[in-house]
Amino acid sequence: MKRSEPMSESYYYILLCLAKGANHGYGIMQLTEKLSGGDVTIGSGTMYGATSNMMKKGWIREILSDEPGVERRRLYQLTDAGREALRGEIERLRRMLDNAEGV
Amino acid sequence: MAQDRKSSWRAYTAWDYEKELEDLDKASREGWQLVRGGCFHNKFVKNPAVRYRYQLDFGRIEDMGRYIETFREQGWEYVNSTFNGWHYFRKAWDPSLPDSAYEIYTERSGLPEMEKRWARIAGIVGMVLLGFAGFWLWTTIRRFQLPNLIMTLMPAVEAGFLLRGWYIMRNPNSPRKRGGESRLFALLLAVILLGSAAAVTLTCLRPHFTTSQQAASAEYPAEDNDWLDFTVKYPDNYFLDLKMQAEEPMTFSIVNEAGEVVFTKTETDFEARDLRLRLPAGKYRYRLSLSGTGAFLVECELE
Questions:
Q1: How do residues B197-256 score in pLDDT, each as one tens digit?
Q2: Sequence ranges of the domains in chain A
Q3: Is B114 in Cβ contact with A48 (below 8 Å)?
Q4: Quick check: is B277 in a domain?
Q5: Which of A28, A42, A48 to mutate to test the interface with B (most CBs of B within 10 A)?
Q6: CB burial class (10 A; 0-12, 13-18, 19+) of residue A80?
Q7: Reported CATH class of domain A9-102
Q8: Which secondary structure element, helix H or strand E, spans residue B279, and what is its range?
Q9: Residue B37: enclosing H or E segment and its boundaries?
């Protein structure tokens, strides 16, 4: 298996949030805080940089909302490549935890 | 009309950006709200009814609409951007929120992205400036002249300043709220301005020309054939490239106002570059003497 670089915390949580469905930046930020119990926050600068880079990598894409009331709102959506990257990272983290348990 | 607008002239270095934020927060507390941030000067309007916290971001933004929206979603109002890639944001101050609520870079490992971006660019520009300094150093070693010396020192000083900033920015433990950097920056700008003015002026004041004279045959041997005048405005090293070819020996000299010979060569076939003449200010004259009537050629360049 191809070894990939460990993901940064913000990349990981953004992908994790989007695995539950397309979301906008603010939604990702709120969900991240909720999932991590307030431990992880994603500031605007980090959010813009991370989403830009992950769009370039093809992990996420931009779509426009068709929900009534918030039409044309910018949303991020996970791509297949993004789902794969997230799966790889989860496996890596799981192996690390397993290793800890073996000690 | 009451004073409800003001400008502040102050340049902050990139690695001192938290000092700028601190000053902006202080101004806001005193009722002066930033309306336009710039490299060298900030504009404020008076409004004691509100209070903001500020943030600065750095980088080339590909999608400005998405960028501003990403910040707006978290309560940041976009103020403006400078030509060199700094972006000002402000957020209404809420005393119940901790300082961490105003952070825009939250990644806990490594430097904030914007500091990495800045350090990358500063590193490249610093190396290019060092390259310039190296080129001019080589030129100065070949031709030790005042303008060349200034052209070496200026990029060297700039590179030193920038690479110092690069080092500070790359070191996560060094404060971004140093203070005193503004004065150093002002000093650097003064050095660049005065240095450039001096280099241009000194270059313009130098005699610099290429000239040649040749003939298939001289009608009669010329004794002390005065040829061309030039003026040296300030004492320095001047360099002569000289080529002489003649059937019979010819003499090329440079004499000063008093008629004293400061340089002379008598040759039939001669070519040299970078002949150094240490000339005081004054008027000078090229003088050519032929010892026969044969063909001759002389070419010279003085700088």
A1: 999 999 999 988 888 888 888 776 666 677 788 999 999 999 999 999 998 898 999 999
A2: 9-102
A3: no
A4: yes
A5: A48
A6: exposed
A7: mainly alpha
A8: strand B261-279
A9: none
Are both B188 and B156 inside the same structural domain?
yes
Last residue of a domain, one of B75, B102, B129: B102
3-state DSSP call for residue B8? Answer: strand
Number of domains in chain B: 3
- The DSSP symbol for B138 reads H
Of A24, A29, A43, nearest to B105 by CB-CB distance is A43
Instruction: Enumerate the residues of chain A whose CB falls inside 8 A of the CB of residue B103.
Output: 41, 43
Whether residues B198 and B248 fall in one domain: no
CA A52 to chain B, closest CA, distance in angstroms equals 9
pLDDT tens, B103-151? 999 998 888 999 999 999 999 999 999 999 999 999 999 999 999 999 9
B198 and B214 housed in the same domain: no
Q: Which of B62, B73, B99, B108 best tests the A interface by mutation, with the highest count of A CBs <10 A?
A: B73
Query: B87 and B24, same structural domain?
Result: yes
ipTM score of complex: 0.91
Residue carrying the six token digits 């140093």: B178
Q: What is the dihedral of CA B160, B161, B163, B169, to 10 degrees?
A: 160
Q: For the whole model, what pTM was predicted?
A: 0.85
Judging contacts by C-beta atoms under 8 Å, the chain B residues touching residue A46 are 104-107, 113
For residue B46, the cross-strand partners are: B32
Q: Is the CB of A74 inside 8 Å of chain B's CB atoms?
A: yes
A48 and B71 within 8 Å at the Cβ level: the answer is yes
Q: Are B35 and B88 in contact (CB under 8 A)?
A: no
Asked if B104's CB is within 8 angstroms of A46's CB, the reply is yes
Name every chain B residue with its beta carbon within 8 A of the beta carbon of A25: 69-70, 73-74
Residues of the domain holding B61: 5-102
- Distance in angstroms (rounded) separating the CA atoms of residues A75 and A64: 6
Q: Does A62 touch chain B (CB under 8 A)?
A: yes
CA–CA min distance A46, chain B (Å):
5
Amino acid at B223: E
